[in-house]
Amino acid sequence: MDKKFELATPIINKLYQFGFEAYFVGGAVRDYLIGREIADVDIATSATPDEMKKIFNRTIDVGAKHGTIVVVTKQGSFEVTTFRSEGTYINSRRPSKVTFISSLNEDLKRRDFTINAIAMTKVGDVIDFFGGKKDIEDGVIRTVGKPSDRFGEDALRMMRALRFASQLDFTIEKETKEAIIQSHSLLEDISIERKTAEIQKLFLGCNPQLGLRYLIETKVYLFLPQFSQNKTLLEKLLNVELKKLNNVEEVWSVLCLAMKISDIDLFLKKWKLSTKLIRSVKQLVKFVNKRLQAPLSNWMVYHLGVEQAIKVENILSIMENNQVKSDHEIKNQYNLLPIKERQELACDGKDLLSWFQSKKPGAWIEESIQAVEKQVVEGHLQNDKLLIKEWLISRANKSS
Ligand code: ATP
Ligand code: MG
Q1: Are residues 271 and 351 part of one domain?
Q2: What is the count of structural domains for the chain?
Q3: Are residues 74 and 184 in the same domain?
Q4: Ligand 1: does its nearest atom lie under 6 Å from the Cβ of 39?
Q5: Locate the FHA domain: which residues (predicted)?
Q6: In CA terms, which of 51, 137, 175, 279 is 20 to 30 Å from 375?
Q7: Residues annotated as binding site?
């Protein structure tokens, strides 16, 4: 069994010692059976949060209301959730009431897809009430129970289906897909934050083309900001190598470029992205557009830094299929820059004022420093005080 499960086994052992049941559940079991790298190991148990708090020395209350406790051990922290079934749903969203029940079967039944509804004992025996293992073998995403009911309970599951299709390279079973087509409008009531998380995972999956195709075919795109008006432009993305996307900055940049978004701030704010991410995407889009006109200059690398420059080149290679510089070449180019930031310049505003005593302080200082900075970064002028002074004087003479 995978090391990650072994690290969590003491928790299961302890729960049994105290007379409770406990199993590995959810994404970790699915990924283990697929042979994919396992993210977090989750445990389901018959013990209630209060009972768990008594048994384990260190716990964190993350969602005791929903039955989830984080148990902290020397081997790591693990989410342990009490078996539960979910009550009625309001607005196709969260459960209004969670009832703890001592039944693994009931707990698995409330899970979204058969592949996510498999449990495993601590010795690796698989408990599979809903044919999840077969669906993994066949590469199929199918709801547990009647798809239209399940999407009616929680509309986000429709986006989860598309996202898993992309992440696992699985197809969506016919009836499940039909139900998404029928129920897609329920997504109206889902919070944008949850949609954002799913869209990002979809585009960063191993078959984003497939995810995008489903997004269009099922009409889910109609309930996503800006996507709804841009079907044709989105379809064009089906022909580019989205698989090369490495991070969320690249995802949003590619979407902005593909949909020819003019007000990036407005668009990304609709998706409730952080200011930091929006700033980064704006820079990337700006420099991708610059790069369409010219090669990656020292001046561009200087402004971007290595990480952003790598992203710019990757976005270009995806969107334009351009020959671009490798990460290694970009790192070298950066390392060879004569200066990495303005502070390293051999002159400053004070020097300029002393060299041009007839001039009053003003915007010319910033303009001159920027001109010097560019010359130095591009390697046309040595970062030497005297040489900079000479260059500035001859420049001033030329322009007068
Ligand atoms: P990953 O963490 O890789 O995104 P995951 O399958 O672990 O995938 P989580 O969101 O972490 O997904 O949820 C853990 C488990 O909880 C799922 O495997 C599934 O069994 C259940 N689950 C999560 N969200 C829902 C939902 N909206 N409806 C029903 N069950 C869900
Ligand atoms: Mg998970």
Answers
A1: no
A2: 4
A3: no
A4: yes
A5: 32-95
A6: 279
A7: 27, 30, 40, 42, 111, 154, 157, 160, 163
Measured in angstroms, how far is the CA atom of residue 26 from the centroid of ligand 1? 6
Q: Are residues 103 and 9 in the same domain?
A: yes
Question: Which residue among 34, 42, 111 has the greatest number of ligand 1 atoms within 8 angstroms of its CB, and so is best to mutate?
Answer: 111
Phi and psi (nearest 5°) for 180? -65, -45
**Within a domain: residue 235?**
no
User: Domain range holding 310?
Assistant: 245-337
| 99, pLDDT greater than 60 | no
Query: Each residue of 350-399: pLDDT tens digit?
Result: 999 999 999 999 999 999 999 999 999 999 999 999 999 999 999 999 88
Ligand nearest to the CA of 30: 1
Which residue's CA lies nearest to atom 11 of ligand 1? 27
306-349 residue pLDDT tens:
999 999 999 999 998 777 899 999 999 999 999 999 999 999 99
* Average pLDDT over every residue of 181-198: 97
Domain boundary among 110, 135, 160: 135
Instruction: Give residue 40 CA to ligand 2 midpoint distance, Å.
Output: 6
For Cα atoms 188, 193, 195, give the angle at the middle one, nearest 5 degrees.
Answer: 55
CATH number at residue 200: 1.10.110.30
The reply to whether ligand 1 has any atom less than 6 angstroms from the CB of 161 is no
Output the CA 111–ligand 1 centroid distance in Å.
7
Say how many Å lie between the CA of residue 95 and the centre of ligand 2: 19
The CATH number of the domain holding residue 31 is: 3.30.460.10
Indicate if 357 and 327 belong to the same structural domain.
Answer: no
What spacing in Å lies between the alpha carbon of 184 and ligand 2's midpoint?
A: 24
